[in-house]
Amino acid sequence: xxxxxxxxxxxLRDGEQSPGASMNTEExxxxxxxxxxxxxxxxxxxxxxxxxxxxxxIRRICEVVDxxxxxxxxxxxxxxxxxxxxxxxxxxxxxxxxxxxxSPIHMRHKLKMEPEEVIRRAVEAVELACTFTDDVExxxxxxxxxxxxxxxxxxxxxIEAGAxxxxxxxxxxYRLPQEMGSMIKELSDHVGExxxxxxxxxxxxxxxxxxxxxxxxxxxxxxxxxxxxLGERAGNAALEEIVMAIKTRSDIFENIETGINTKEIYPxxxxxxxxxxxxxxxxxxxxxxxxxxxxxxxxxxxxLKCQETYEIMRAEDIGLDKNRLVLGKHSGRHAFKDRLEAxxxxxxxxxxxxxxxxxxxxxxxxxxxxxxxLRMLIASEITNIPQAFELVGLQIADCSAGVPSAAVxxxxxxxxxxxxxxxxxTIDAIFKTIDRISKHSGLLKDYRVExxxxxxxxxxxxVVNVQFDxxxxxxxxHGLSIDTMLASAKAYIGALNSYLSMLPADCRIExxxxx
Length: 515
Ligand code: KIV
Ligand code: ZN
Fold this sequence. Notes:
Elements: E1 3-4, E2 6-9, H1 25-38, E3 42-46, H2 52-64, E4 69-75, H3 78-87, E5 94-101, H4 104-111, H5 115-130, E6 136-141, H6 148-161, E7 165-170, H7 177-191, E8 196-201, H8 208-217, E9 222-225, H9 239-248, E10 256-257, H10 265-276, H11 297-305, E11 325-327, H12 333-342, H13 349-365, E12 369-370, H14 371-381, E13 389-396, E14 405-412, E15 415-422, H15 426-438, E16 442-451, E17 460-468, E18 475-481, H16 484-502
Parallel strand pairs: 1-10, 2-3, 2-9, 3-4, 4-5, 5-6, 6-7, 7-8, 8-9
Antiparallel strand pairs: 11-12, 13-14, 14-15, 16-17, 17-18
Helix pairs in contact: 1-2, 1-10, 2-3, 3-5, 5-6, 6-7, 7-8, 8-9, 10-14, 15-16
The protein binds 3-methyl-2-oxobutanoic acid (KIV) and zinc ion (ZN).
């Protein structure tokens, strides 16, 4: 009999806490659907009480996810738990995840509470959560720096109150693998069959995955993790690394299995990178661009003779098709649709038609179209958020000779508006002109450009992070084009549309009146 380790994905909650990774509701829904396809057991969809946007995203995710459990985080306070329950109301399978800090440093300085009060709050929170669902998780925040006797005491109390999963986070990523392992051993021996032991490791010392694996070896049966290791500060344990370590070293993890369909790992990683704009480093294990690339002659020779000389996993196992050349300008709609299906996209006829038009336009300019080009095309062009502003045209002046300037044409509310402006550079001129037309002012926090695949005619992917109208959070926009300036304009307008889609309807400015 194999022992199941539940995979609890928190890309949409802890992952979203990565600087610059905020996502809009439609983007979160796309990721949640893909996480379900990947076989994630529990999707932490957000923190319902944190903002109306989080609340709405959880509620909408409950409508489309029917196999995975959908979870909301909640502090151990009544209003958070009630909000979580409201957001999860329509979920087929729901979990409330409540937490309070248990380390002396957090209790004394952050909560300013005595340990007895912390236990009382934890018990009350779990009891209230249990009135909404039988599936309640309790986390001891900063458990990594908490005292074991106190952890045993609070865990006993919350089990009594009805908690079914007990999570031990190494919130600040302080512990070493042996320490985490022996902590989990002692706690899971103490808890026994009364609840599922879970771990949640942060990566501040680069040990999140190693720590999580040691915990599994010592009795943890739920691991909390994120795609591409996204998360607060240095991130969380990377889902793909944990799952592939358990699979590849089944000689060590003899009786352990996860429910993950590993062939969905690469597509999921690409989708998350495309949406958040945060690319895994090239040498990142499992999903980095170089993870399966063999550069040196000796390695290539060995690989040709026998793949196992230098490869412990097959690229196919994670759903990576080695970026083979697929389509060109003569490919028809049928071949295009087949290829999208092979890549795992399930699109409506309208979306396929829209994507095919984009593909044709791209194939006119770019000779070779790779799988990664297609993935990007779909991820960045097919969006369900309302396109309040749409780029129609862009003209830029040769900035080597004089003042950089841009003329931009935008469609908005059925009107086509053209304006021109100057800037410190061409991109600045484009963005300032868009601001003037839209009457929203953006503060550019981050701008990145990179080539999607290979070749001089590679697609440029531009990702911008913009704070509009002095709002608290920045939004991400993506633009894709052979032309970097065009990609930049699309990215900026994409960010603007995303920002507007998150505003309550009565706050939207009818900006172009009178322009
Ligand atoms: O790192 C942490 O402690 C958390 C908890 C809220 C589970 O993210
Ligand atoms: Zn965390």
